[in-house]
């Protein structure tokens, strides 16, 4: 009996040690990142689609890691980029941006290569298709009618873009594909585009599907079509896809290039659960996107492939500044 009791006690002690070690291991893994409060830089105004994604990601990270996170907006993209360039590679400063940063480099708006100055540590959302929007009183109701109007009225349509940004590339493709000409004006943040379309200050722009539906229901805009993969959007059956011009965009998480592999891996691992988090998945879907996660190597490969594709477009449009 004494031997049995001793064996049982030994078993309990061993189990306790395993549990303690298991808890310690989990705590240690969770404690790799963040070690301090993290700033999440957004190179656009509050209320835009990048801002919405980032703030919902902030909510997820706070729940998943127990760390402290703060979203910081910059009206000027270049200021956000410079802030990240000047930051330490300790994982306490990240930036969330899509392919616009590549467009800025290719066209000379920034004079440094983002693939060398920054490191991609995550890819957290497929930002989905874009709605092409016009004013509620516009003399066209479909994409076909719009293109026909543009052909008959070259230069009359005022198009809101971010100069040297993704929308410059998007509407540049439209002009080339259909042989039309727009008057391009600066209109950066999505919130500004919606306001200026509704107010009649610009004639055409692009925006996220979720915002487009809300504004169209309110009678402030009309949606001419969906620009993306060329396939119908199941959640937005009321709009036809545009099939002649295709576009895709992903939201990347950038860290300073000096970040070490261990910290980059820890950050990337912290993002992994977003695809299974109901709140984040729902938030992405609400604005026409999709939560996603890939490991470090895949994220970097996707970023490099996007840069190659946009490089070809920049050359084609004659706006490429770097070899």
Structure description:
This protein has 323 residues and is α/β, with parallel strands linked by helices. The chain has two domains: 34-127 and 249-317, Bordetella uptake gene, domain 1 (D-Maltodextrin-Binding Protein, domain 2); 130-242, D-Maltodextrin-Binding Protein, domain 2 (3-Layer(aba) Sandwich), CATH 3.40.190.10. Helix content is 46%, strand content 18%. It has helices at residues 2-30, 49-65, 77-86, 100-106, 114-117, 143-152, 166-178, 190-198, 209-217, 261-271, 278-286, 296-317, and strands at residues 38-42, 69-73, 93-97, 118-126, 130-134, 158-161, 183-186, 204-208, 222-227, 241-242, 250-256, 290-291. The strands form three sheets. It has a six-stranded mixed β-sheet with strand order 2-1-3-11-4-12, with helices on both faces. The longest helix has 29 residues, at 2-30. It is globular, with a radius of gyration of 23 Å. Residues 1-31 have low confidence and may be disordered.
What's the arrangement of strands in the largest beta sheet?
2-1-3-11-4-12
Low-confidence stretches: 1-31
Strand/helix succession = HEHEHEHHEEHEHEHEHEEEHHEH
Provide the structure class.
alpha/beta
Major β-sheet annotation: 6 strands, mixed
CATH topology of the largest domain: D-Maltodextrin-Binding Protein, domain 2
> What's the CATH class label of the largest domain?
Alpha Beta
